[in-house]
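Sequence, please.
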């Protein structure tokens, strides 16, 4: 009797671990939320007079941001190939002139420079 074992190192892509996001995507979302909310929470706490309260607010905001952004990313990824959203983002940056995407984006007829007839 053959048994089928799932081997994690034979996967083509990272497995989803939370709301359709892989671990690398979750780390990116968490870092982005941390970089955004900690300074804002600290500033808010200093304005109120209790910096610890601002850090607590930042912690709650980080958790909420990761949950909401993972849900949005899950909806963006549904039914599309791996890394489609990232490729679209890079193409958008190239269209704005901020970064080269590395993709060949050419419209028209491709030609090899030689003809069939001698």
């Amino acid at each position: 009797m053959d048994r089928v074992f799932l081997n994690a190192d034979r996967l083509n892509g990272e497995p989803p671990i939370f709301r359709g996001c892989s671990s690398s995507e979750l780390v990116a979302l968490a870092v982005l939320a941390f970089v955004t909310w900690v300074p804002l929470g600290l500033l808010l706490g200093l304005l109120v007079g209790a910096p610890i309260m601002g850090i607590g607010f930042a912690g709650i905001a980080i958790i909420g941001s990761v949950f909401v952004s993972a849900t949005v990313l899950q909806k963006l990824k549904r039914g599309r190939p791996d890394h489609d959203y990232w490729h679209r983002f890079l193409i958008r940056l190239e269209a704005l002139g901020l970064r080269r995407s590395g993709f060949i984006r050419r419209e028209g007829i491709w030609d090899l420079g030689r003809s069939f007839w001698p």
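The helical segments are 23-48, 51-77, 84-96.
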